[in-house]
Amino acid sequence: MTMSAVLKRRLAGLSWSFVRGVLLIGLCFLIVNPVFIKLTTTIMTEKDVFDPTVQWVPRDLNMTRIAKHYMEVIRNMDYFRTTFNSLVFSSVISLCQLFSCTIIGYGLGRYQFRGRGLLFGLVVFTLVVPPQMITIPLFLNFRYFDLFGLLKNGGFDLIGTYWPFLLTSLTGTGGKNGLFIFIARQHFRGMPKALEESAYIDGAGQFRTFWQIMLPGAGPILLVIFLFSFVWQWNDIFYTSTFMRGGMNLLPFALRNLPSRYHWSVSTEFRTIVNNTGMFLFILPLLILYIFLQRYFIESIERTGIVG
């Protein structure tokens, strides 16, 4: 190979590396920029908010004023109590969805039975069904929950309780469960059959094979499903407001009601600062969670093949 050919190849590699780096930096900026905007707005004064000459750093960086402002927003949101409630609520629902979606995905991926393709198609179809289409049937089902007519006197009123979320999560019919079942099914479907056959030869039953042979190798998808479910449940306000009649003790509703905690006469600039402070405090637990789990999450994404 001549020197010119080697030089051309190296230049082509450097050009592609440059283009790829620019694309990655641009994508990172699109994702991180809103977070920085929220953060910088929380430390600004009312004069700085709509001042076009102030972009990132406020003119008056008074740490005492900033600390007092944050403490006021934390108090008005009842931040620590609502954050703890949201952590417990989202964790329990995510674990229930992880349990049910893993089992359903394993069944669709490893067992051959009539109607499996149709059933899996219906699971995928749930991903494109708008939640507004099934809100009224779901609400009426839990408002007059009679367990397929087995309970008399109109059944029980489950609206305003956690039961709608627990029941839908444990049965694999909760929000975004179609995606979680799809991830689990694709992973278990790609595992070698020799693992199951070896376990059966050694005398293991189907449940023991799933629990001791197949499940330990599914660690990446378990983490992905749990994190996806946790983040979705953390941000959810549609189903929560529908089934819990307000859900005042959860963080999304504390954020939604934050402006009403202030007198109507406060300026628009101050409301903007308050809203951005509440939004930053809302996403702060997710940022902390990502900092500690980013390595495992990225490895899980790579091993499960979820791209794009």
List the helices and strands and how they pair.
Layout: H1 3-42, H2 46-49, H3 63-77, H4 79-110, H5 116-125, H6 135-143, H7 163-170, H8 177-189, H9 193-201, H10 206-214, H11 219-235, H12 238-243, H13 251-256, H14 268-304
Helix pairs in contact: 1-14, 3-14, 4-7, 4-8, 4-11, 5-8, 8-11, 9-10, 11-14
Can you give a write-up of this model?
The protein is an all-alpha fold and 308 residues long. The protein is built from 14 helices and no strands. It has helices spanning 3-42, 46-49, 63-77, 79-110, 116-125, 135-143, 163-170, 177-189, 193-201, 206-214, 219-235, 238-243, 251-256, 268-304. Helix 11 runs antiparallel to helix 14 (268-304). The radius of gyration is 25 Å and the shape is flat. The model has no long low-confidence stretch (mean pLDDT 83).
Q: Can you summarize this structure?
A:
The protein is built from 14 helices and no strands.
Number of beta strands: 0
Low-confidence stretches: none
Biggest pleated sheet: none
Order of helices and strands: HHHHHHHHHHHHHH
Instruction: Label the structural class.
Output: mainly alpha
Number of helices: 14
Keywords:
about 300 residues, mainly alpha, about 0% strand
